[in-house]
């Protein structure tokens, strides 16, 4: 029995610390401390302290747990595992405090809004008045048209709505909707669309001048589109989670789960530059 416990303790001792695990995951994701700080809004000195397993600068266990959760999600780790280790090392999870909602904002749900009966009544009255006016107007118009047709033998019926042009097309043709969101991307520009269909990822997009267009965590189900006259440069922290469209065409095999990809696209792609 003691041998089994010793083996488990040895395996636990071999695991990297919380701060070391966060640091290794950040480096593996190709992220700098500045990039993580910009994404998470955790100040750089606190980030450095956490990676050295110094949680004293966090302002208490509640804030420390919130920072750990946020950083773990950003670098691709499971926050539940790190939080369980943090609690175990400190004798259990701390009692809830008013500060907890700062980091558990995703659990907060807005109170259901009460129906605005005044606005609904006004809308109903307007609809009724409009319907009555429309009915009276149409009735008068039909009576007038009927008398003209009876008194004037030369009166001709109006053209049928289903009449077709000689070419066989409908009289009022409309453009068919495009099958893809950026299928009509302009040929004189480069257009890149990211869709996080298979998970969330950290991403960064820059134009040809190196100007940052956007960076941060793209959550599952979200999408972003970027356009530039010359080139778009991308960094993907979890390439396997993303569907990528360049100039209206899908790019296959962007990368694997957890793989960091740095990509550039120009007009005429979708072949990576």
UniProtKB/TrEMBL annotation:
<dbReference type="Pfam" id="PF13413">
    <property type="entry name" value="HTH_25"/>
</dbReference>
<feature type="compositionally biased region" description="Low complexity">
    <location>
        <begin position="147"/>
        <end position="167"/>
    </location>
</feature>
<dbReference type="InterPro" id="IPR010982">
    <property type="entry name" value="Lambda_DNA-bd_dom_sf"/>
</dbReference>
<dbReference type="InterPro" id="IPR025194">
    <property type="entry name" value="RodZ-like_C"/>
</dbReference>
<dbReference type="GO" id="GO:0003677">
    <property type="term" value="F:DNA binding"/>
</dbReference>
<dbReference type="Pfam" id="PF13464">
    <property type="entry name" value="RodZ_C"/>
</dbReference>
<feature type="transmembrane region" description="Helical">
    <location>
        <begin position="117"/>
        <end position="137"/>
    </location>
</feature>
<keyword id="KW-1133">Transmembrane helix</keyword>
<feature type="region of interest" description="Disordered">
    <location>
        <begin position="145"/>
        <end position="185"/>
    </location>
</feature>
<keyword id="KW-0472">Membrane</keyword>
<keyword id="KW-0812">Transmembrane</keyword>
<dbReference type="InterPro" id="IPR050400">
    <property type="entry name" value="Bact_Cytoskel_RodZ"/>
</dbReference>
<feature type="domain" description="Cytoskeleton protein RodZ-like C-terminal">
    <location>
        <begin position="199"/>
        <end position="264"/>
    </location>
</feature>
<protein>
    <submittedName>
        <fullName>DUF4115 domain-containing protein</fullName>
    </submittedName>
</protein>
